[in-house]
Amino acid sequence: MGCGMTCSSEVLRPEAARLWRGAINVLLLAGARSWAGEQKLSPAPEVVGPVRQRAHIAVRALAGRERSLQPLVAKVCELVADARWRPTEAAVMRYRRGGGISTHRDHRRFVYAVAVVCLDGEGVFSTFASRPGRAVSEWRCRPGDVVVLAGPDPADPLGVDPRPLHAVRPAGAERVSLTFRMELAS
Questions:
Q1: Which pLDDT belongs to residue 10?
Q2: CATH number of 17-183
Q3: What is the pLDDT of residue 186?
Q4: How far apart are CA 100 and CA 144, in angstroms?
Q5: Which residues of the chain register pLDDT less than 50?
Q6: Closest among 139, 18, 14 to 79, alpha carbons compared
Q7: Sequence spans of domains, the chain
Q8: Are 24 and 3 in contact (CB under 8 A)?
């Protein structure tokens, strides 16, 4: 399922990551910015295992009460194009100049997909074949762009892990993103 005439997509590896350029229109972007601006951000841990990050973050459970986000969530679900995926949390991330997050994979508890909406500023999204290593691909993300990353399928009998290694850094003074993830109830 695509997004019609409003955006184009670029595929890194079909099973790993996809960039949807201009997928989010100005009205949806304004609603997302407003919601994100209401969240109280806290410094993210600077070191998590081999991952280094300099960012501020707010993670919120999505309980269906976020009326201002519902149209955006519907659009992102359309881009993910997996009927099983319904995000259960949203994370606002703010990276300032010199910040970002080093090469990592999103946690395997986030299933089917992770979708990142660029709200403000520009960022460089890089993918890697290994850590350490040189970037396999780099995308410059702008407001309204969406990156969809593959996540594990808990029903996969082979246990294939499609999560791409990736890193993010701001391309200017600041970048703000809104990440949607799904965690299965235990």
A1: 42
A2: 2.60.120.590
A3: 60
A4: 19
A5: 1-14
A6: 18
A7: 17-183
A8: no
